């Protein structure tokens, strides 16, 4: 068959259709403050989940891209914020120690995630309406300069 029809342009023909640019997105983040002091937010909740899932402050911090010192500091702050500790440390030794959430730690994490889900659901319509009204994203400093 000769080069007629759809393949007439040859093998270099690009049949792909350009995708429309991704719609801008707004991301709500619930942070709980007490007297202007952050007590729980998405990062601290993620750290608590990581400790719950791994049994290790170091592993939880590493998974989040933070240093052990930073993870430890956040755990100390969380433990000092409430009327009891959220994370319990276990001494090293054969099992090399570890950490786990206390009953209060599980409660705080569960309540925070529930409040987060409820707030996300409550604002979803307004958030979508605002996202639809966003203009193009501003260029980062130096972008487009050569």
TrEMBL record:
Residue span of region Disordered: 1-23
PANTHER family reported in the protein's UniProt record: DNA-BINDING TRANSCRIPTIONAL DUAL REGULATOR MODE (PTHR30432:SF1), TRANSCRIPTIONAL REGULATOR MODE (PTHR30432)
Name of the featured protein: Molybdate transport system regulatory protein
Domain spans labelled HTH lysR-type: 49-105
GO molecular function: DNA-binding transcription factor activity
Domain of life: Bacteria
A Pfam family recorded for this sequence: HTH_1
């Amino acid at each position: 068959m000769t080069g007629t029809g759809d393949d007439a342009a040859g093998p270099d023909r690009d049949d792909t259709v350009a995708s429309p640019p991704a719609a801008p997105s707004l991301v709500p983040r619930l942070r709980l403050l007490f007297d202007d002091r952050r007590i729980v937010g998405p990062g601290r909740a993620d750290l608590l989940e990581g400790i719950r899932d791994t049994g290790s402050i170091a592993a939880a911090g590493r998974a989040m891209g933070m240093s052990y010192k930073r993870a430890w500091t956040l755990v100390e702050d969380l433990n000092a914020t409430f009327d009891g500790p959220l994370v319990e440390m276990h001494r090293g030794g054969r099992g090399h120690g570890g950490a786990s959430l206390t009953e209060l730690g599980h409660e705080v994490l569960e309540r925070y995630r529930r409040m987060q889900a409820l707030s996300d659901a409550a604002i979803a319509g307004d958030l979508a309406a605002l996202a639809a009204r966003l203009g193009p994203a501003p260029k980062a400093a130096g972008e487009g300069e050569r």
